[in-house]
């Protein structure tokens, strides 16, 4: 058969640096400026595509693949002139090698983040989902491939090729899944955790499948090659686990507590990624496997795993991975789809369908709802970077041709692009929190146990929390069950961790144990009144609110206490935790119960035992009307029962109530009347009314009260406030989670040394407000 003679346009590229266009030189004739242009082009095109696809809720990987395809022969490089200037022969060589390095560091970071120890902790249902989700599509894909084997190419019809393609269709790559689940903010959701745990199991099975594929491919050359491959694999694995792993653990042991890992160790490990890739490639183990296995032997989380991810993630994802997608785009060519690619297309399509159906069926069998089962099946079918690297590996084996590679890439993009928005539509992680039953302080009978979820970011939050719990007046007939949740940002690992410290072994973390020890001492002093149940949640910041709301939902809490993310002092503010403002905002938006944001101004003591020592504590309630103000007053009423509490309630009224709803007015009047009648004989409770006509008068009245010593200001956040009382004040506060009045009282300008508790009453979903005096029946 006569072969076509292809005319190749070559252009010489020099390694010298250009002096500039003003010297009459073309920068594109020099290697480094051309490399910068290629990198800039793929980044700009990918970001433009991402911006255009944002309304369709597309993940980042889809826009990056499309960006590479646009630069490739399908679109721009279809012009021979464009291709010869942008991707001459030596520039094409550099681009491909940088692309492979990008995949290597992507797999290394994925290995560092992956926690294989989770296999010991996962539920049986996760094993069932993973096993059925892998074995059923594997068997189905092999069966279909055998049926259409005669119509497949010579290379594709080999047993090793059929196994390799079928295995890739069956497994779910954890690195791909985690990236998209993180984008969808489902990491801490029930379905997200289930999918990630199942994906880890799937990856372990997938590694076994890859080993079988590589061994059979090696055996096609010489039978002894398969044996040599397995021997090399055993030696490489032993070297990793016995030598490299022990060296990593030694680095962790020798690093002082609270100190970062020495920079030289970080540099050596990052350079070892390329060494591991070289050794793995030399022995036929596949270059990507070396990087992945090196990442797996790194202890995940701080100090080592966290700093490795921190140091390498930006370089790998921003500067190297664009070359990877450019490499993919250069091979993908729609014009190559002229030969017989349909058998492979049907085989792959059937494999994806069988996997989705198998996962859906097993999820329904395990009593998941239809919506959740469908969501899980879609998540487990997502495809991305790992699949693209496998396609390149098959190209190296000459197992597939360009048209096969093109159809595989297009199917990868299509599946991920179609399934991701469906996941967003089908699954709302906040849906379980939308309760219709009242879970707040106002409607909780006084002689019942109060369930509280208390969030802790760091040790500095402890004293303010303990002081608030003491002021809340726990008693024998009204004890507190406090579920403390220590929030730890997930760094250097992917799988979120939720620990119940009463039922599991404590983590080997001195910072966590010091918090728990302080809580234990506090409970011993108030043991008959307060029962503390410690929990720890390690997850990304965007998903922390899900752990908080889920714990509150499961424990039937009527109050969530969230610490303010800033420390207020006399001289100014200091941010305690960067990015934690969004945690408070999300909790306020989705909580299944009442939320209190605590702005603590208390000095942090050295001894936590014995929180309240002074004889009298002065509390002030700023009652501006509405549901939040009524909840704040109800909480203050509980506190007023403590003998060492002096409570002052200031109700703000206006002569202009045109915008104030009649229903809110009745509810406010009813609760205030009940409160005054109940505490009429209590000389430690003072009730005042202040008439104002606008926001400025409201602020002036509050400022006038600041002369008195106040230990705690209690104020409703915003719901139902009479608009006249805030007229003229800016609706935009610096700290929106505190509301307009709360933000002012917490500001340095106000000048108070007292702490502030901003209360938001539970927002009922799908239920109209109760009648004006429905709450009265509980109290009389």
TrEMBL record:
Give TM regions. Answer: 30-49, 98-116, 128-148, 160-181, 193-212, 224-244, 264-294, 314-332, 344-366, 407-427
Q: Which domain of life is it from?
A: Eukaryota
State the UniProt keywords alphabetically. Ion transport, Membrane, Potassium, Potassium transport, Transmembrane, Transmembrane helix, Transport
**Where does the record say this protein resides?**
Membrane
Task: List the Gene Ontology MF annotations in alphabetical order.
Answer: antiporter activity
UniProt GO BP? potassium ion transport; proton transmembrane transport; regulation of pH
Q: Does the keyword Isomerase apply?
A: no
Concerning InterPro entries, the annotation shows: Cation/H_exchanger_TM, CHX17_2nd, CHX17_C, CPA2_transporter, Na+/solute_symporter_sf
Q: Does the keyword Membrane apply?
A: yes
Q: How does it sit in the membrane?
A: Multi-pass membrane protein
User: Boundaries of each Cation/H(+) antiporter central domain copy?
Assistant: 482-602
Main localisation: membrane
The chain positions of domain Cation/H(+) antiporter C-terminal read 620-762
Gene Ontology CC: endomembrane system; membrane
- Where is the Cation/H+ exchanger transmembrane domain positioned along the sequence? 44-422
Give the family from UniProt. Answer: Belongs to the monovalent cation:proton antiporter 2 (CPA2) transporter (TC 2.A.37) family. CHX (TC 2.A.37.4) subfamily.
Q: Which PANTHER family match?
A: CATION/H + ANTIPORTER (PTHR32468), CATION_H(+) ANTIPORTER 24-RELATED (PTHR32468:SF109)
Write down what this protein is called: Cation/H(+) antiporter 24
Source organism of this protein record: Sesamum latifolium
């Amino acid at each position: 058969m006569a072969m076509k003679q292809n005319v190749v346009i070559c252009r010489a590229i020099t390694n010298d640096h250009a002096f500039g266009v003003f010297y009459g030189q073309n920068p594109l004739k020099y290697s480094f400026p051309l490399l910068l242009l290629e990198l800039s082009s793929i980044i700009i095109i990918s970001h433009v595509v991402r911006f255009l696809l944002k309304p369709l809720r597309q993940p980042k990987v889809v826009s990056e693949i499309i960006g590479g395809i646009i630069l490739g022969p399908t679109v721009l490089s279809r012009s021979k002139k464009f291709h010869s200037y942008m991707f001459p022969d030596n520039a094409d060589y550099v681009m491909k090698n940088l692309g492979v390095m990008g995949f290597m560091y992507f797999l290394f970071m994925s290995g560092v983040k992956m926690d294989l120890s989770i296999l010991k902790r996962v539920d049986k249902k996760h094993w069932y989902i993973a096993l059925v989700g892998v074995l059923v599509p594997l068997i189905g894909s092999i069966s279909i491939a055998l049926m259409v084997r005669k119509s497949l190419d010579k290379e594709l019809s080999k047993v090793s090729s059929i196994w390799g393609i079928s295995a890739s269709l069956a497994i779910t790559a954890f690195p791909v899944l985690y990236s998209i689940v993180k984008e969808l903010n489902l990491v801490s959701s029930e379905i997200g955790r289930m999918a990630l745990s199942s994906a880890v199991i799937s990856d372990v099975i997938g590694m076994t499948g890859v080993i079988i594929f590589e061994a059979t491919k090696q055996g096609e050359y010489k039978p002894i090659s398969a044996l040599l491959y397995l021997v090399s694999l055993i030696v490489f694995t032993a070297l990793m686990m016995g030598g490299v792993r022990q060296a990593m653990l030694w680095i962790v042991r020798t690093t002082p507590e609270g100190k970062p890992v020495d920079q030289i160790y970080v540099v050596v490990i990052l350079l070892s990624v390329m060494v591991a890739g070289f050794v793995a490639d030399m022995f036929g183990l596949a270059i990507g496997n070396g990087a992945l296995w090196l990442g797996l032997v790194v202890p995940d989380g701080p100090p080592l795993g966290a700093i490795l991810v921190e140091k390498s993630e930006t370089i790998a994802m921003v500067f190297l991975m664009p070359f990877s997608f450019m490499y993919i785009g250069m091979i993908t060519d729609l014009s190559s789809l002229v030969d017989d690619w349909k058998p492979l297309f049907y085989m792959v399509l059937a494999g994806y369908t069988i996997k989705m159906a198998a996962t859906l069926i097993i999820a329904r069998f395990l009593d998941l709802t239809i919506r959740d089962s469908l969501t899980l099946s879609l998540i487990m079918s997502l495809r991305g970077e790992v699949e693209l690297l496998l396609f390149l590996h098959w190209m190296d084996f000459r197992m597939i041709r360009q048209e096969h590679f093109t159809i595989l890439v297009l199917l990868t993009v299509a599946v991920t692009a179609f399934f991701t928005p469906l996941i967003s539509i089908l699954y709302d992680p906040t849906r379980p929190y939308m309760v219709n039953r009242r879970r707040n302080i106002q409607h909780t009978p006084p002689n019942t146990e109060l369930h509280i979820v208390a969030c802790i970011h760091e040790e500095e939050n402890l004293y303010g929390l303990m002081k608030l719990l003491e002021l809340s007046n726990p008693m024998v007939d009204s004890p507190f069950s406090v579920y403390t949740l220590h929030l730890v940002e997930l760094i250097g690992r992917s799988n979120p961790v939720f620990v119940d410290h009463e039922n599991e072994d404590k983590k080997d973390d001195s910072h966590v144990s010091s918090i728990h020890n302080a809580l234990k001492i506090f409970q011993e002093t108030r043991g008959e009144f307060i029962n503390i149940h410690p929990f720890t949640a390690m997850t990304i910041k965007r998903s922390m609110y899900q752990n908080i709301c889920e714990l509150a939902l499961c424990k039937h809490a009527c109050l969530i206490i969230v610490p303010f993310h800033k420390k207020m002092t006399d001289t100014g503010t200091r941010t305690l935790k960067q990015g934690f403002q969004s945690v408070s905002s999300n909790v306020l938006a989705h909580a299944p119960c009442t939320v209190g944001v605590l702005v603590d101004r208390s000095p942090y003591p050295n001894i936590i035992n014995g929180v309240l020592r002074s004889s009298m504590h002065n509390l002030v309630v700023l009652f501006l009307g509405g549901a939040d103000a009524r909840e704040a007053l109800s909480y203050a009423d509980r506190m007023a029962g403590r003998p060492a509490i002096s409570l002052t309630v200031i109700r703000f009224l206006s002569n202009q109530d045109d915008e104030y709803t009649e229903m809110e007015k009745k509810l406010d009047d009813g609760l205030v009347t009940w409160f005054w009648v109940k505490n009429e004989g209590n000389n430690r409770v003072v009730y005042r009314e202040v008439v104002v006509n606008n926001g400025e008068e409201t602020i002036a009245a509050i400022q006038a009260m600041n002369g008195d010593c106040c230990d705690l200001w209690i104020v409703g956040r915003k719901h139902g406030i009479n608009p006249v009382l805030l007229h003229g004040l800016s609706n935009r506060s610096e700290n929106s989670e505190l509301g307009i009045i709360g933000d002012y009282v917490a500001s340095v300008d106000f000048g108070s040394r007292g702490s502030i508790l901003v209360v938001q009453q539970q927002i009922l979903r799908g239920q109209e407000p109760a009648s004006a005096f429905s709450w009265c029946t509980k109290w009389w």
